[in-house]
Design a protein that fits this description.
Helix content is 40%, strand content 17%. With 515 residues, the protein is of the alpha/beta class. A hairpin with a 5-residue loop joins β2 and β3 (82-93).
């Protein structure tokens, strides 16, 4: 009689153990994206591929002929063993001048391919979008880009390992490249391989990163310098250098976002009186954010009722939100809430990458948008146009799947980073320290920061804060420039802003040639 309960208990225990083992096995399995990367590793080309074609484009009334090359760079470890195949598309102006500047460009993520910069910014071709509205479905228009940088520099667009057509090789796994320092190492090897393969050692060299690509660029500038490549320039578009300010419990990111909130309220006509000059108005908001607002947040629960009321009233005047809502939020206006709240009365939400974009949720209730309309509103055009262009116009054919953005990379990213001179690795990396060290070691390095007023993913005031805390000597700090545009994270989606950005970039490159 006693055997039955025991047997039942044993069976239950065995079932629980089996269930636990199965759960552990499932958690140990790679995600579908990771499995796909591993499956394609065997098919990635170990031997470097090159597919070149000739084209031309008119920039500022001058026709420029250029060679477009779609291919791969084989990255090798210190022992010479192939570890990755890095996909790139290069545009080199006719003339064969190896003393002409060469610029390496990439997006961020982490886990994004370079197609966003490639297909819409400074390459000789550009996709037309309906920014700041959603771009409709195909067919899309790929047009010659009169605002291309090909008149000033050769251009090389690089894909991170595991994104685009870039893949690990041999026994290497995707995770070997998915981290702050691992990624910097891979891009350093990619840049150095392109320079060696194409005889560009004596060319002025610039790196141009967007979003997380700016975080990469700051670390890459130092690493390349240590490897003997002293850059002429670093261009940061929509910047995030210090991820530590975003850790829970800190107020800095709330301070950084306030001028961007004010810009969005200005754009959507939510201010009681709309200033005529946005740039001038945002100088006022910056001063308040850095002064009274920062001081109020620093007091935490010790803030007086009178000060809380005064700050809430001022925030209301800048953000277009009610005093009651701001007080209910403890003066701490999180980004997702602002994106949902500002146009709630119109049943619309705001974009994260670009707050000019409006989204439509299932319901007006809730405290965060369903998606980012500034992402979904243009990604289809970029991805479809890239495939059509690379395989059709450039003639690059592969049986690898193209990964515009690999979520498995960001989910498995190793955020640890050891800055120059540090005794331990940071858990939330700050590569502004690397860029500062690079500029001190190479006083001829010039930094250009490009910012969109309506970008809440990487707010411009946060960029100013990070760069202001690089502790640069005045002699070196004169090499730092800022530019601002009436656009979002992907500044170039606004044709007017793209023209402004090209003019600023042209002056920047002309300045590099004089140094």
């Amino acid at each position: 009689m006693m055997l039955r309960p025991f047997a039942a208990a044993l069976g239950l225990a065995l079932a629980v153990c089996a269930s636990t083992a199965l759960a552990a096995a499932d958690s140990a399995k790679p995600s579908p994206e990771a499995a796909a990367i591993e499956a394609e590793t065997a098919r990635a080309p170990v031997n470097e591929t090159v597919h070149a074609s000739h084209h031309s484009v008119s920039v500022d009334g001058k026709v420029i002929g250029y060679k477009a090359t779609a291919g791969t760079l084989t990255l090798r470890d210190d022992d010479g063993k192939p570890v990755a195949s890095m996909f790139y598309v290069a545009y080199v102006a006719d003339g064969g001048r190896t003393d002409r500047p060469v610029t390496f460009l990439y997006n961020g993520g982490p886990g994004s391919a370079s197609l966003w910069l490639h297909m819409a910014s400074v390459a000789p071709i550009r996709v037309e979008t309906a920014s700041p509205k959603a771009t409709g479905p195909a067919p899309y228009r790929l047009i010659p880009n009169g605002d291309s940088l090909i008149d000033k520099t050769d251009l090389v667009f690089l894909d991170a390992i595991g994104a685009g057509y870039s893949r690990p090789l041999g026994e290497a796994k995707g995770k070997d490249f998915w981290g702050v320092d691992q990624d910097i190492d891979a891009f350093a090897r990619g840049v150095e391989r392109y320079v060696e393969l194409n005889g560009r050692w004596n060319s002025p060299k610039v790196i141009f990163g967007e979003s997380y690509g700016t975080h990469r660029s700051a670390g890459l500038a130092y690493r390349l310098g240590e490897d003997g490549i002293h850059l002429n320039g670093v261009i940061l578009l929509s910047t995030i250098l210090n991820y530590g300010v975003r850790d829970a419990g800190f107020d800095r990111n709330l301070i950084n976002l306030l001028p961007t909130y004010a810009a969005a309220a200005w754009y959507h006509d939510k201010l009681a009186a709309k200033p005529a000059d946005l740039g001038l108005y945002l100088k006022e908001v910056r001063a308040y954010a850095e002064g009274p607002f920062a001081a109020a947040l620093a007091k935490g629960d010790l803030i007086s009722d009178a000060e809380r009321d005064a700050v809430a009233a001022k925030l209301s005047s800048y953000t277009g939100l009610s005093v009651a809502y701001l007080k209910q939020s403890n003066l701490r206006l999180e980004l997702s809430r602002f994106r949902k709240e500002l146009l709630r009365d119109q049943r619309r939400t705001l974009g994260r990458y670009d707050m000019r974009f409006e989204g439509i949720d299932r319901e007006a209730a809730g405290d965060s948008p369903e998606n980012d309309p500034s992402d979904s509103g243009m990604s289809g055009a970029m991805i479809a146009s890239f495939h059509d262009y690379v395989s059709g116009t450039l003639g690059y054919v592969t049986d690898l799947s193209y990964k515009p953005s690999n979520g498995d990379i960001s989910r498995n990213w190793d955020w640890r980073h050891k800055p120059p001179g540090a005794n331990y690795a940071q858990q939330s990396s700050d590569t502004a320290l690397d860029l500062s060290a690079a500029m001190r070691r190479n006083p001829g390095l010039h930094l250009l920061s490009l910012n969109g007023y309506f970008d809440s993913a990487t707010p411009f005031f946060g960029t100013e804060y990070d760069i202001a805390h690089m502790e640069l000597d005045p002699v070196i700090r004169k090499n730092v420039q800022f530019a601002y545009y009436p656009s979002g994270h992907m500044v170039y989606l606004n044709p007017e802003a793209l023209k402004m950005m090209k003019a600023d970039l042209a002056r920047y490159y002309d300045g590099l040639s004089k140094n």
